[in-house]
C-alpha cells in the first residue's frame, strides 16, 4: 500500500523503481502552484496547463532537439530529433521498452502487442502480421465500403432534416464498426444506434486515456475496483467486453479448421474474414484464450480512434482551407470513381490527392502525438541536431517521450511552411534541413500508399518506426481513403460556427475540444466563398499550386 501511495506521488525512484534520468537538465518552468494543482487534479493535462504535447512544443522552440522535463521528482527526457528517434526506435531498439505506457495499458490490453514485453512481443508479432495479408486487405475494402454506405445514409438523413452533425463522433462510430468486424467479426452497429456494449467500449477507451494522462496510478490503490468512483464502472465494462470476447473466441475455437498460413491466405473466408478466425485456424497455434483476448482488445483500441482522428482532422483542414483544395480532391474522386459509389483497391491507389490529404493531416495531428519509451540499459543517443557532440547519456530506467508533434511541425525539417496544411508538399522534395544525418524527404523514394518513416528518414513517424511500428498502417490508410472518398463524393460541409471553435484536447489521440460540428449539404450546393485570397492559408495554397483567382 505504502509503495503504491509513494509511487503514486512520483517517489518511485526513491524506492529503486526507476533511476532519474540524466542528460541535459532544463528545468520545467511551471510554477509550484501549477504542479500541485496538476497532482491534485490527477492528470498531466492540468499539470501542463493544456495538452502536454503543446507545452512540449513551446519548450522545443526554446530548448531545441532534446531537453529534460521534470515534474517534481518525476522526470522525462523529451526527444524531438529524427536521428535520436531512429536510434531509439530502430538502431538500438533492444535497449528500450514501452515503460510507463505498458504499466498503464497492461490492465486493459494484457500482453497484447502494444504493451507486450519483448519476449511475448516477438512471438505474437510473428503470429499476427501474416493476418494482414494482401487478399485480406482486399476483402477489407468491401467492409470499409459497407460501413461507408451506412455513414452516408446517416448523413443523408441529416441533410434532409437540415440539421448539423457532430462529425468526430460519426467518424468514431464508423471506425468502431469497421474494427469490430475486421478483428472479431462482431457488428457493433454503432453508426445506427448506441448500445450498452458501444457505451462500454467508449468508457473503457476514456478510462485508458485518463490513465495515460494521470500522474497518480489511482487504479493500483487497493480494491479500487470495489469502491473508487469510475473504477467500479470500469471493471463492470471490462467484464462485459471480456464476456463478449470470450464468447467470440470460444465460438471460433469450436469451429476451428486448422491450416497453414499459405492455405489460410488462399481460403475463401467470406463468411468470416476476421483476424480472429485467421489466428484460431492457424496450424500449431497456441490457442490460449487469454492471449487471443489480449490481442483482440489491443487491436480494437489501437485501430479505432486513431483512424477516426485522421478522418476528423482531414475534414477539419479541408473545410477550413481554400475551397479549391477540397474541390481539387473532389474532382479527383469523381474522375477515379467514374460514377461508381464504392471504391476498390485500384481506386484507392489512384486517389493520390486524397491519400496525401489524409497523410498531411497525420503530419499535423500525429496519433498519438507522443511515443513513450523507457531505457532498459544505459545508452548514448547520437547528437543529431543538438550541439551535444558527444551524444546524450541516458541512464537505465530513464523515461523518454518522442514528440512526433514536434518532429512533424519542425521548420528545420519541413521548411517555413511546416505548420500549414498543404497536401501537395508530398509531391515536392525538400532537403532543406541542417540536421546531421537528415537526408531530407525525397518524393521519388516513396513506395506504397503513403510516404513513410523510411522515405523521410524518421522525420515523419505517422505509424511509428522500427520493429514496433504499427501493424495496421496499410489497413488504416485504405480505410480512411474509402470512407473519406465516399463521403466527399456526395457531401460538402461547413462549420456551424468558426473553425477556431473546434479546439483541441489530448488523449491517446488528439481529440477536438468541442466536437467537429458541421452542416452537411449535397455536393455542389454550397456557394464557394474564397477565404484568404492572397493572404492566409487559402492564398498560400493557391500560390503554391498556380491557382490564382
Ligand atoms: C502501433 C499509429 C491504426 C494496430 C502503432 C504505433 C503508432 C500507431 C504510432 C507505434 C506506437 C509506438 O511505437 O509506441 C496508428 C495510426 C493509425 C493506426 C495513426 C490510424 C490512422 C491501426 C490499426 C490497427 C493498429 C487499424 C489494427 C487493425 C496497432 C498495433 C500496434 C500499433 C497492434 C503495436 C505494434 C507492435 O508493437 O508490434 N500504431 N495506428 N493500428 N498499431 Fe497502429
From TrEMBL:
Keyword Zinc-finger in annotation: no
Keywords: Heme, Iron, Metal-binding, Monooxygenase, Oxidoreductase, Signal
Cofactors named for this entry: heme
Superkingdom classification of source: Eukaryota
Single GO molecular function: heme binding
Amino acids binding heme: 470
Protein family per UniProt: Belongs to the cytochrome P450 family.
The protein, known as: Cytochrome P450
Organism: Triparma strigata
Species lineage: Eukaryota, Sar, Stramenopiles, Ochrophyta, Bolidophyceae
Amino acid at each position: 500500500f505504502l509503495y503504491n501511495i509513494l509511487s503514486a506521488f512520483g517517489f518511485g525512484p526513491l524506492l529503486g523503481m526507476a533511476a532519474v534520468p540524466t542528460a541535459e537538465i532544463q528545468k520545467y518552468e511551471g510554477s509550484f502552484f501549477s504542479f500541485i494543482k496538476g497532482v491534485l487534479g490527477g492528470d498531466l493535462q492540468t499539470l501542463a496547463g493544456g495538452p502536454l504535447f503543446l507545452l512540449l512544443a513551446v519548450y522545443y522552440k526554446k530548448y531545441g532537439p532534446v531537453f529534460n522535463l521534470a515534474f517534481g521528482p518525476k522526470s522525462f527526457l523529451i526527444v524531438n530529433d529524427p536521428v535520436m528517434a531512429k536510434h531509439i526506435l530502430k538502431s538500438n531498439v533492444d535497449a528500450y521498452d514501452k515503460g510507463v505506457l505498458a504499466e498503464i495499458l497492461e490492465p486493459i490490453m494484457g500482453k497484447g502487442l502494444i504493451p507486450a514485453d519483448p519476449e511475448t512481443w516477438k512471438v505474437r508479432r510473428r503470429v499476427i502480421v501474416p493476418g494482414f495479408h494482401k487478399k485480406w486487405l482486399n476483402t477489407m475494402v468491401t467492409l470499409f465500403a459497407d460501413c461507408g454506405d451506412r455513414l452516408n445514409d446517416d448523413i443523408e438523413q441529416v441533410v434532409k432534416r437540415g440539421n448539423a452533425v457532430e462529425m468526430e463522433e460519426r467518424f468514431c462510430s464508423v471506425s468502431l464498426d469497421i474494427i469490430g468486424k475486421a478483428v472479431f467479426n462482431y457488428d457493433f452497429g454503432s453508426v445506427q444506434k448506441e448500445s450498452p456494449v458501444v457505451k462500454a467500449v467508449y468508457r473503457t477507451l476514456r478510462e485508458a486515456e485518463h490513465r495515460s494522462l494521470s500522474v497518480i496510478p489511482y487504479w493500483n490503490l487497493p480494491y479500487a475496483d470495489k469502491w473508487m468512483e469510475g473504477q467500479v464502472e470500469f471493471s463492470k465494462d471490462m467484464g462485459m467486453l471480456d464476456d463478449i470476447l470470450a464468447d467470440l473466441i470460444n465460438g471460433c475455437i469450436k469451429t476451428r479448421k486448422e491450416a497453414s498460413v499459405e492455405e489460410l491466405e488462399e481460403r475463401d473466408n467470406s463468411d468470416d474474414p476476421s483476424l480472429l478466425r485467421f489466428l484460431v485456424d492457424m496450424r500449431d497455434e497456441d490457442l490460449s484464450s487469454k492471449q487471443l483476448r489480449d490481442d483482440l482488445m489491443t487491436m480494437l483500441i489501437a485501430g479505432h480512434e486513431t483512424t477516426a482522428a485522421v478522418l476528423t482532422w482531414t475534414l477539419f483542414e479541408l473545410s477550413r482551407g481554400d475551397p479549391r483544395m477540397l474541390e481539387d480532391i473532389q474532382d479527383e474522386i469523381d474522375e477515379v470513381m467514374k460514377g461508381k459509389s464504392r471504391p476498390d483497391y485500384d481506386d484507392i491507389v489512384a486517389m493520390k490527392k486524397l491519400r496525401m490529404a489524409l497523410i498531411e493531416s497525420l503530419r499535423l495531428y500525429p496519433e498519438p502525438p507522443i511515443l513513450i519509451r523507457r531505457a532498459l540499459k544505459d545508452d548514448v543517443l547520437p547528437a543529431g541536431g543538438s550541439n551535444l557532440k558527444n551524444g546524450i547519456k541516458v541512464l537505465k530506467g530513464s523515461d523518454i517521450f518522442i514528440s512526433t508533434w514536434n518532429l512533424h511541425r519542425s521548420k528545420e525539417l519541413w521548411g517555413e511552411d511546416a505548420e500549414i496544411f498543404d497536401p501537395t508538399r508530398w509531391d515536392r522534395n525538400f532537403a532543406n534541413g541542417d540536421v546531421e544525418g537528415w537526408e531530407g524527404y525525397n518524393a521519388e523514394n516513396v513506395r506504397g500508399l503513403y510516404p513513410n518513416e523510411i522515405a523521410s528518414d524518421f522525420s515523419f513517424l505517422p505509424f511509428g518506426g522500427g520493429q514496433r511500428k504499427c501493424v495496421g498502417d496499410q489497413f488504416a490508410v485504405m480505410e480512411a481513403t474509402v470512407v473519406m472518398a465516399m463521403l466527399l463524393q456526395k457531401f460538402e460541409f461547413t462549420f456551424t460556427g468558426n473553425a477556431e471553435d473546434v479546439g483541441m484536447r489530448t488523449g491517446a489521440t488528439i481529440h477536438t475540444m468541442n466536437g467537429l460540428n458541421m452542416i452537411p449539404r449535397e455536393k455542389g450546393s454550397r456557394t464557394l466563398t474564397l477565404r484568404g485570397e492572397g493572404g492566409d492559408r487559402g492564398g498560400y495554397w493557391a500560390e503554391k499550386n498556380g491557382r490564382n483567382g
